[in-house]
Amino acid sequence: MKSFFNEFKSFIARGNVMDMAVGIIIGGAFTNIVGSLVNDIINPIIGIFGGMNFDKYQLKLMDDVVISYGKFLTALFNFVIMALVVFIMMKSVNKLTAAVKKEEQTKSDNARKCPYCMSEIDTNATRCPHCTSILEK
């Protein structure tokens, strides 16, 4: 039994389990933000132009059996809007990430290694800022 708990402890302590836990927590918070954006901002604006609320649409089969297809249509519509919002946000994040990587690549293109201490320095430097050696062009 002790080995089981030790194995479980090592499983929980692994990095990818912790990364997954953080991802799930952030994903839950992000879901609340996107849900609020859709339900509290986008849907009312669309309601002004469309003037329809699908939640009330039902189909009565018998006295006690009701199919609320309007709620399904609303859920489907909310999903499409949420997917669009997440797509736009991720596209923006990817664009920002690509710009940062490009800037880092540009910095590394303007760098060379000091022949004495092997530190990365600017190509125009005449003296190494790390070891203060005089550099030849």
UniProtKB/TrEMBL annotation:
<keyword id="KW-0407">Ion channel</keyword>
<comment type="subunit">
    <text>Homopentamer.</text>
</comment>
<dbReference type="InterPro" id="IPR001185">
    <property type="entry name" value="MS_channel"/>
</dbReference>
<comment type="function">
    <text>Channel that opens in response to stretch forces in the membrane lipid bilayer. May participate in the regulation of osmotic pressure changes within the cell.</text>
</comment>
<dbReference type="InterPro" id="IPR019823">
    <property type="entry name" value="Mechanosensitive_channel_CS"/>
</dbReference>
<dbReference type="InterPro" id="IPR036019">
    <property type="entry name" value="MscL_channel"/>
</dbReference>
<keyword id="KW-0813">Transport</keyword>
<dbReference type="GO" id="GO:0005886">
    <property type="term" value="C:plasma membrane"/>
</dbReference>
<keyword id="KW-1133">Transmembrane helix</keyword>
<feature type="transmembrane region" description="Helical">
    <location>
        <begin position="21"/>
        <end position="46"/>
    </location>
</feature>
<keyword id="KW-0406">Ion transport</keyword>
<keyword id="KW-1003">Cell membrane</keyword>
<comment type="similarity">
    <text>Belongs to the MscL family.</text>
</comment>
<keyword id="KW-0812">Transmembrane</keyword>
<protein>
    <recommendedName>
        <fullName>Large-conductance mechanosensitive channel</fullName>
    </recommendedName>
</protein>
<dbReference type="Pfam" id="PF01741">
    <property type="entry name" value="MscL"/>
</dbReference>
<dbReference type="GO" id="GO:0008381">
    <property type="term" value="F:mechanosensitive monoatomic ion channel activity"/>
</dbReference>
<keyword id="KW-0472">Membrane</keyword>
<dbReference type="InterPro" id="IPR037673">
    <property type="entry name" value="MSC/AndL"/>
</dbReference>
<feature type="transmembrane region" description="Helical">
    <location>
        <begin position="66"/>
        <end position="88"/>
    </location>
</feature>
